[in-house]
């Protein structure tokens, strides 16, 4: 991606500037802000700057709620991404809370697909396995496996 810190800093400054330039109330500007924020999330995630990545994920989720409404599948997908990020950072309780929020969003969305539930359940399996809650891990692992097998 970027070879040196100066390249990273240039990209970061560019994306922050882009995000700040387009933060008004028009739908087009909000959509462009979402894209800039998504790119900033990727940049921070790949740079291992976890606090900035977490902050950008949260801003992205809030922006998607404004753009699409709080029960849109795009919000749930970003919650899944944040939950996965927390798992990678060994922040399992934050991951659990975030993934449970994703389930609540999907439960209110008629467009929710079972594959997304399976992904959440797999991530929850990981959370519960790594925090010593084997009964919960097994339950979510079984749910994920069932969905994956039924959707082949």
Provide an overview of this structure.
- The structure is a single chain.
- The chain is an all-alpha fold.
- It folds into two domains: 1-68, no CATH class; 70-152, Tetratricopeptide repeat domain (Serine Threonine Protein Phosphatase 5, Tetratricopeptide repeat), CATH 1.25.40.
- 81% of the residues lie in helices and 0% in strands.
- The protein has seven helices and no strands.
- The chain is globular and about 45 Å long.
- The mean pLDDT is 81.
Q: How do the strands and helices of this protein lay out in sequence?
A:
Layout: H1 5-21, H2 27-47, H3 50-68, H4 73-88, H5 92-107, H6 114-130, H7 134-150
Question: Which features does this protein show?
Answer:
globular; Serine Threonine Protein Phosphatase 5, Tetratricopeptide repeat; mainly alpha; 7 helices; single chain; 81% helix; 2 domains; 0% strand; 152 residues
Give a short summary of the structure.
By secondary structure, the protein is mainly alpha-helical. It has helices at 5-21, 27-47, 50-68, 73-88, 92-107, 114-130, 134-150.
**Overall structural domain count:** 2
| Beta-strand share of residues | under 5%
What percent of residues adopt helix (DSSP H or I)?
over 70%
Tell the overall outline. globular
CATH topology of the largest domain: Serine Threonine Protein Phosphatase 5, Tetratricopeptide repeat
CATH H-level superfamily of the largest domain: Tetratricopeptide repeat domain
């Amino acid at each position: 991606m970027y070879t040196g810190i100066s390249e990273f800093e240039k990209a970061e400054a560019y994306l922050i500037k882009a995000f700040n330039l387009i933060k008004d109330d028009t739908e087009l500007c909000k959509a462009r802000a979402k894209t800039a924020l998504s790119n900033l999330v990727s940049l921070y995630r790949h740079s291992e700057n976890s606090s900035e990545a977490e902050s950008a994920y949260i801003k992205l989720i809030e922006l998607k709620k404004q753009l699409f409404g709080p029960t849109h599948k795009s919000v749930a997908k970003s919650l899944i991404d944040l939950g996965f990020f927390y798992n990678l950072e060994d922040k399992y309780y934050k991951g659990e809370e975030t993934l449970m929020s994703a389930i609540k969003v999907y439960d209110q969305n008629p467009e929710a697909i079972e594959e997304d539930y399976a992904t959440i359940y797999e991530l929850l399996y990981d959370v519960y396995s790594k925090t010593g809650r084997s009964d919960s891990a097994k339950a979510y692992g079984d749910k994920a496996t069932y969905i994956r097998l039924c959707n082949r």
